[in-house]
Write the structure tokens for this entry.
Amino acid sequence: MGGLLQEVALAGDDIPWLEGQREKGRELFLAQGLPTAKTEAWKYTRPRDLMTEDFILTGTDEDESHEEEHCNYHQGECRCGHHHESQKALSFPSYEIRFENGIMQAIDFELPKGVTIKPLIEAIYEEDAVKSYLGKEIDMAHYPFAALNTAYMEEGVYIAVERDVSLTKPIAIINHTHACRQNLMAHLRNLIILERGAQATIIENFNYSGNEKSRYFNNIVNEIYIGRGACLRHYKLQDEAYKAVHIALSRVKVRENGFYESFCLQKGANLARNESKISLKEEQAEAFVNAAYMINGWATVDTTTDIEHLSAHSKSHQLVKGVVGGNAKGVFQGKIHIAPNAVKTEGSQLHKALLLSDEAEIDCKPELEIYADDVKCSHGAASGELDKEQLFYMRSRGIGEEEAKQILIDAYLTEVINTISNEDVKNWFSDSANINTGEEKC
Amino acid sequence: MSNTPLLEIEDLSARVKDKEIIKGFNLTINEGEVHAIMGPNGAGKSTLSYVLCGKSGYEVTSGHVRFKGKDLLSMSVEERAREGLFLIMQYPVEIPGVAVTTFLKHAVNAQRKYHNQPELDTMDFMKLLREEGRKLGISADMLKRPINVGFSGGEKKRLETLQLTILKPQFAILDEADSGLDIDALKVVSEGINAERNEHNAMLVITHYQRLLNDIVPDFVHVYADGHIVKSGGKELAAEIEKNGYAEFTKEK
């Protein structure tokens, strides 16, 4: 056991450039340390849960031996008394990639033509392209968890879609944690490359089984490259155990006429941050970056976006809605940066939150940095409570108070969930947020 | 009409914040009866309907209300509704994002569950909704829209009436049910309401004008002023008020 940064043997230590990146990651993480109250980018979200010395890195000897004596989850039963499910996570067809406790499982489907999916470490050895992409856009000096992730860079998936190839089914990355013991940590690095004109849908799902009180730590970095005219739809459902720590960064680069749609629904973890740093590098690049969160208890759930408009006629749209109950805290930090040459760009951002209790908290920090003239930019933030008149109206028709509240919460989130363009995902996320879509089914 | 009391209000007083609005109000309504309460604006007619429904912010300071023999005032808002109390509101709220059908399905099933009945099958429910809607001139399209959002005054009252015909409460309070209605809509709405009248249920029609009472003809008319009933009579009392106004009742104070 040890702290966040441990001496472990990693695959690929014979590759100098990889070792070099890892070493740089170690250095830059050590230089920054964990964010504190003084770290501007983390001032609302304090990763206190990580200040312990007892993390077990997944896939290490310690992890394996522990598994033998305590958690024989491969037999489907864990000594913690919980059954570990292994059924498909999605109810609709997909190319499903599974990670179990941070370890990628063998792929059991035929790859479509023009698509490469393999463990990152294999790709590092086998794919020439990897070296020119991996880590290239990650500013480790300002992203301590990305630096930490890089120090351990080994596990993860490499997905490449060749020029003009369109995938009909989504690729689903299912990250399942058997939360049957304490303090596992996993650092996942996914590299996703869409060549010119390629089209794909990628779904990330973080779920767990076993003891929901277990603490574990997932630290994910996605590097996403969207080529000219390519289109990526990227959906994520974060449903971690309620003491888990989940920190994720998606670093996205969109080239000319490229299109990126993302939606992240967060409903689990005790401390979670989903961060997107998106560069609209060339003209007509466009991004929809929407999100929702529904949290309770003592959780802190953070949605952070940073969208750089680096070229003319680029567009970004953000709608984020949250529902916060109990003593929980919702954080939204949204930055739109428009470079001097990025004229005729459009950037819109709206964050709305519903507070269900007096103790619930919302922290919202919109930032606009506009260095160009002739741009259309807007941002807004609103928070409120459930409408008492609406609650009375529903109750006066016999609907119980809790049910009435749920109906109003569902209605509140429906607006943002409806921005998901994939119907299967929209329905899945609606159900996950307990949203009743009602009449369409009649 | 029978002599089985459905709603018994005894010496009811209630206030909103520090203001006493209802003062020593007494009224008994039996099964099968339609009562009208008429009164000048600001007399507290809506307050009476909110107190009976249990809306927060309306504090009962004295008195008793029994509904079907049970203590109404100790019940929650939803319990009162499930027991069969219904209010057609003067100003129904808009609820963006909640479709009429979704809402009504929740309401119907909440009440069915309370009475240990199985939930309605969605297909059957939709059929019922469309049929009842058609009678009230409510299109299938309107049923899909969010509750009252962008509805005209007439559409809102039609929707209130639709809820009455679907939920079939034993006791309905109509609070200024005719406000915002043109003559045609008034006819449709009052026909819808009249169709629900039977020997076991009862209604309390709260109105400022006699107009509605030409269509929904009451058995008893009460004049309400200064927080209580000042005069009671038959339906002819309504015509009298229409002619002479409320002046003679309000100056009694």
Observations:
- The two ends of chain A are 55 Å apart (CA to CA).
- Chain A touches chain B through 27 residues (CB under 8 Å).
- Confidence is low (pLDDT under 50) at residues 65-85, 435-442 of chain A.
- Residues 16-32 of chain A form the longest helix (17 residues).
